[in-house]
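Hi L.,

As promised, 3-oxoacyl-(Acyl-carrier-protein) synthase:
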Amino acid sequence: MEKVYINSIGSISAQKTFDNNDFLEEIVTYQDNIIPVIEPNYKDFIPPAAARRMAKGIKMGVVASKIALEEANLTDIDAIITGTGMGCVRDSEKFVTAILDNNEQFLTPTSFIQSTHNTVAGQIALGIGCKGYNFTYVHSSVSFESALLDAFMQLELKEAENILVGGVDESGDHTNAIHKLIQHIKPEKINSKELLHSKTGGAVFGEGANFFVLSNKKQDYSYAQLLGIKTYNTLAKSDLVANLEVFLKEKNLTFGDIDVLISGNNGDIDYDNYYSELTNGPFKDTQQVAYKHLSGEFNTASAFGFWLGAKILRTQHIPSPVALNPIKIKGLENVLLYNQYRGKNHSFTLLRRC
């Protein structure tokens, strides 16, 4: 089996992450329950005529992928694998609204064509002329992990050498309104610095695009080694620690071998207690990190956590805005990411310094 490495990254998020030379030196604070991404100058990456016809999610994905490819010094790759929970939801909303407003008549197909979940991966492939394997996973909040696992297995088995993997989701007004009605979004606007200490239900929603070039060829500029991914559709809190122990044992690791735990806490008082099983249990003396107060919650928010883990291992630095406890250990080797959403779709991802 070949080892798998993260050779480059590209991130468009609610923070200034599109410049890979920075690592959360300047944090943007929000007072809201829905936060947008900080968009780069798309004209620097996409011809203006083409950008005008692209949905926001497509533009975010295309730019994040270009940043990742440029950092990896690649113009083409063997495969493109993306994960998305809602796809280009804004165009979906436009098309459904047009159906209702026009009594199902005189409809233009543009919004429908651009609303499909695989549009981002298709646009990336067209842009770089990639005719290789192209697949999009739509698996709710493990969509990114599903794409990651696909790429991981292909690279382990030497079926490919360089694969572009990413997670992308955009924010849609109508969809957010529904999430507010069913109380998945917090009813009150909250300062992002205080989110993780919130005592109310629901999350602060966001959006973003995070892409990575994975390879079985280690480079001098590689960020980290990807050791493994494990997902569960359902997992009881009482079984969480035991299942994680089995996963770590498969990689010849124990709880004590983990130097940093990156948790997907989102400030939802009804479900953040899943993370407490680990933070107050086997990892109570381990450095702990969180990120959704910076990125917001969305189906592929865990891709931002993956970006954070890769940056931590390469820089050997944990920015203070993401630290959950004062514990500091030098020589960071192994990072564990744990994410779940509303008690379902749990994922463990292991990274190692390379």
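The first strand starts at residue 4 and ends at 12.

Thanks again for sending the construct details.

K.
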